[in-house]
Amino acid sequence: MKFIKIIIAILVVGGGIWLIAGWNQQTKVPSSEPFKLGFIGPLTSDAAVYGIDEQNAVTLAVEEINQSGGISGRRIEVIYEDGKCTGKDAATAAQKLINIDKVKIILGGICSSETLAMAPITEQNKVLVFSALSSSPEITKAGDYVFRNSPSDLDVAKGYADYIFKKAGYKNIAVLSENTDYGMGVRQVFSEAFKNLGGMIVADEVFRQGERDFRVQLAKIKSANPQAVFINPQAGITGGLVLKQLKELGVTTPIFSVFVFSGEDARVAAGGSAEGLVFFDVVGLTTEKGKEFRDKFISRFSKIGGSDYDVGARYDSVYILADAMKKCSEDTDCLKRYLYNLDWYDGVIGRYKFDENGDVVGINPLTPKTIRGGRVELLR
Question: I need a labelling partner for 326 at 20 to 30 A (CA). Which of 35, 68, 100, 189 fits?
Fold first, then answer.
């Protein structure tokens, strides 16, 4: 009997502990700590116009989400780091966000160099990266936790070549590229595609990031006597200066370029030299939803300094992630599965989803534009 009483006592005490523990588990107060997101982009440097635009887009989206109750009652907070459009600074920023701030999601990079440099670090730590502008083809294979709603240059640069060779009708061309991950990616894809069409690259020049005097390279381009020139800078200010120096050297052949001339900084740096330039951009904020967002953004921040598409893509990305976090919290394995399996998303930049590499599907990657009277116009 004594033994049985001891057993009963143990069961009673144990059962009480179990009930208390179960009750505590059921009545556990949900975390009120904010969700912390990291951001890496060029907040200084020649590409800062894109970093500031994206920062404003994030600010707008986060304010709206927080004012609507946040994510399951928890607010979003964003820690902003300056990647300066370089791999070195982006890698340092990623280490800080992961190891000190303990973030599980990073918005960025903006420049391809930033995204490619941080990817090995974020992959090792199972941190999700979501870029809205990085377009290097190398990002496709950068990692299982890397996503972007910006088209790859593998598609975009082929479109450049096709337009210049077929529609514009130029069979030989000179190319000037900035020595960055973005610039070299465009250069490789464009040159291969142009040659495959039957075209000839009569001059292929490269300049260093941060360079301001391009006259040596431009003189070589002029002496090659191309039918047209394709300039491939990473930042708008750089592109504007290249264009200005081309005109100063007396180059009068048609000039084509990349999306950076959608930004006011490029056109200001070029001055009157930008008139008649043809450049290629993605569609931008052309839908009704996109136009409403654009009006709201400009009402709050007065202007879009760089690319309409970039601002919209970054705004979309915050909402996509907020929806994912409602289901997954900060579980990045769950978050990446959510993004891979995401059905068509109706965002301000259009309707799209992600493929098995985390690349965007459904966005028209090519829209030719021109500069007339100092303003950007669609090329009809």
Answer: 100
239-283 confidence digits (pLDDT tens): 999 999 999 999 999 999 999 998 889 999 998 899 999 999 887
**CB of 238 closer than 8 Å to CB of 270:** no
CATH superfamily of 154-281: Response regulator (3.40.50.2300)
Angle of helix 308-328 relative to helix 332-340, nearest 10 degrees?
120
Residue 169 in tokens:
């009708």
Name residues whose C-beta falls within 8 Å of residue 162's C-beta, 6 or more positions apart in sequence.
Answer: 193, 197
Architecture of domain 35-151+286-361: 3-Layer(aba) Sandwich (3.40)
> 173 φ, ψ to 5°?
-150, 150
> Do 35-151+286-361 and 154-281 come out as alike in CATH topology?
yes
User: What is the Cα–Cα distance from 312 to 124, expressed in whole angstroms?
Assistant: 29
Displacement of CA 132 from its chain's centroid (Å): 3
Task: Report the greatest alpha carbon distance in the chain.
Answer: 110
Q: From residue 162, give the alpha-carbon distance in Å to each of 129, 156, 166, 204, 239.
A: 32, 10, 6, 18, 22
Q: pLDDT (tens digit, 9 = 90+) per residue, 173-199?
A: 999 999 999 999 999 999 999 999 999
Residue 30 pLDDT: 54
| Domain boundaries of the chain, sorted by first residue | 35-151+286-361, 154-281
Using a 10 angstrom Cβ sphere, with 0-12 exposed, 13-18 middle and 19 or more buried, the burial of residue 165 is buried
Q: At what angle do helices 215-223 and 236-248 cross, to 10 degrees?
A: 50
- Per-residue confidence (pLDDT) for residue 31, from 0 to 100: 65
**What confidence score (pLDDT) does residue 282 get?**
83
| Residue linked to tokens 């990073």 | 106
User: Which residues of the chain fall below pLDDT 70?
Assistant: 1-31, 365
